[in-house]
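Could someone model iron/sulfur cluster with this protein?
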Amino acid sequence: MSHQPARRSFLKGRFSRPVVMRPPGAVTEGEFADTCTKCDNCITACPEAIVFRDDEGFPRVDLTKGACTFCGICAQVCTPEAILPTKAWAWRATPKATCLSIQGITCRTCEDQCEQQAIRFRLQTGGRSEPLFDNDLCIGCGACSAACPAGAIDFVQTAPIPSEETRC
Ligand code: SF4
Ligand code: SF4
Ligand code: SF4
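Reply:
Sure, complex below.
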């Protein structure tokens, strides 16, 4: 009997586990599960209503539902200090292949929403154009993602979790 399927599933679990977007200022993922009591305070307090329970009951931010204003209210209401006050946020926007503009359908919705002017378009053949996101200008707010009619904007972490020195 071949052991390939079991090995494949092991590798998938080891390397493909998605990184969950916790509220700004969340402690490292390893610490988070031990610190968060699943009280839901951050979920109910978020004025933008962008924090939801994940499959395990921990809070996760969904930037397709709205933009984060980095108000810090989630950190203020987190008594166990699973979320700490911070100005750092390592997530940055990136387009998916399902982007309408990449498919040749005219759309500049994300660019219109980006106050940081972090998005520009590079023309391609066949009437298509590719959105380019400038990681240095993007603050990961999610305004583009919330407005995208195709749900075609993803977020990636571009830096490690901030150290204590960068917290405010
Ligand atoms: S910083 Fe403010 S807007 Fe962002 S997730 Fe926390 S409470 Fe919501
Ligand atoms: S307020 Fe803190 S302890 Fe409560 S659910 Fe949110 S992160 Fe967890
Ligand atoms: S996440 Fe915010 S700053 Fe970044 S590209 Fe989207 S709208 Fe602009």
